[in-house]
Amino acid sequence: GVAKSTVEISIACRNLADKDLLSKSDPMCVVFNRPPGSRSWVQMLRTEIVKDDLNPEFVTKVVLDYRFEQVQALRFEVYDVDSA
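User: That's the sequence. What structure does it adopt?
Assistant: Structure tokens below.
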């Protein structure tokens, strides 16, 4: 079989652009992976929203099986969530 280990990835951002006019941004990170041989990205998880923070350290971690012989593509997108 393929050798694998479980890894835990912490997500933090620094110096995000402030997209809100009257307060700081409320960032959230969405994590995607692309399965081997696939062209499409699959959403794995969304972090919590961190209020009024341009340097967020997200509590939610990415936990995945790391396969040593395989390229595993990950994509991280950070959004400013406007609370209504």
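The mean pLDDT is 91.
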